[in-house]
Amino acid sequence: MTSCVEHTEACLAAAHEHNPRLRALIDIYDDQALAAAHAADAAAARGASLGLLHGMTVSVKANIDVAGQRTSAGAAFLADNIPAADAPVVERLRQAGAVVVGSANMAELAFGSRSFSAVGGQCRNPWNEQRIPGGSSGGSAVSVAANMCTGSLGTDTGGSVRLPACFNGVSGLRPTHGRIPIRGVLPVSEHNDTVGPLARDVRDVARLFAVLAGFDAKDATSVDARLANFLPTLGDGVAGLTIGLPRNHYFESLEPAVAEAVMAAARRLERAGAKLVDVDVPGAEHAHMHMSRAVFSDVCHVFHDRLKNQPGTITASVVERMRHGFEVTGIQYAEAMAFRNQLRLGMRGVFAQVDLLLSPTSPLAAPLIEDGANLLEATKAVTRNTYAGALASLPGLSVPCGFTPEGLPIGLQLEAAWWNEPLLLRAGVAFQQDTDFHRQQPPLQG
């Protein structure tokens, strides 16, 4: 049996070997990680466990505070920002026995799909290094896919956990907004921001989620929602569940390989005992516009002074995309909030009919980094299926479900009603018990 130290050493070795090319981690915490691994092994030698994540190696997205380590969010003006305290989610990781191995690269200020940052450089997809890793939690997903760690913490405002999970062949959960604290996380839109775990295996995602979830009285967005011990039911399967296939929006204009893989995944869940039904998702086709207006306005609120007075301290492509928020009128923002209420009402109706909603995570596989599109266009192209659930504050899970003929991963998105993450995770486990897509290794170069 591999010790925690041996596992951590293997992860750090992979990081040092592949990170110069993949740029998945901004900083690698060699000494801190090995000290934590030794502590885990010492506890095991005493017959003790440090917690649910005993010895699990985890990277942390660079917009989440890690005490004594720089938390830059990939931005040059934050390159020397060293917080004195861990964010609550990092504190919970440590309390559960996790080994934090490094700071994950990301789209600068968590605003874009390519995961380029001024501090970390261009993060690259390990399945094809000319392709984007997705964003904004690109480094989180790549560090897992390239075996630099078992799990990672990302953040998801409109798809930033689910899309990197999809493009890198790993699993990623966006929780219900308010389920996991976001205190100590540099915001984009506090109305939509979530922290979410990534790992290859949904069971590891579930363990991370169980540790991270919980009320934080000092977090204005945190909701005191009960979470029972769901881990013993992860293997209960999908027999008897009703899964909705959206008739509108989600399955339109897909790459053929994506359509084929996702429908094959749906049929696999059907053979496992789930019932597939067609459903309409009212307003889904309009969610992207309203979500974009709201989030662009929110991010301009967060960085207003810097965008107005020091725009040169932010990478130009990020500034260009952010500034669209200055064009959003107060009436348009109010329209977006009114639409969100109606979308939530519509989703309530959907989940009165079905237990889960199934769709492609992205309509296409990972695009080229140099695809000729500006950051606004590039991000819009891949987020078409993730914005509606985010605007409605729903939980969503992306799991690997196949590959394109070019060998690029494809992601299956499952969404559930508010606070029903355990059902999502149960379905993800059932799918992975019958498949091995999540176990496939990218063709890493030495």
UniProtKB/TrEMBL annotation:
> What Gene Ontology molecular function terms does this protein carry?
catalytic activity
Domain named Amidase is located at 6-425
Q: Which InterPro entries match?
A: Amidase, Amidase_CS, Amidase_dom, AS_sf
Instruction: Tell me where on the tree of life, at the top rank, the source sits.
Output: Bacteria
Q: Which family does it belong to?
A: Belongs to the amidase family.
Protein name, entry field: Amidase
User: Which organism was this protein described from?
Assistant: Comamonas antarctica
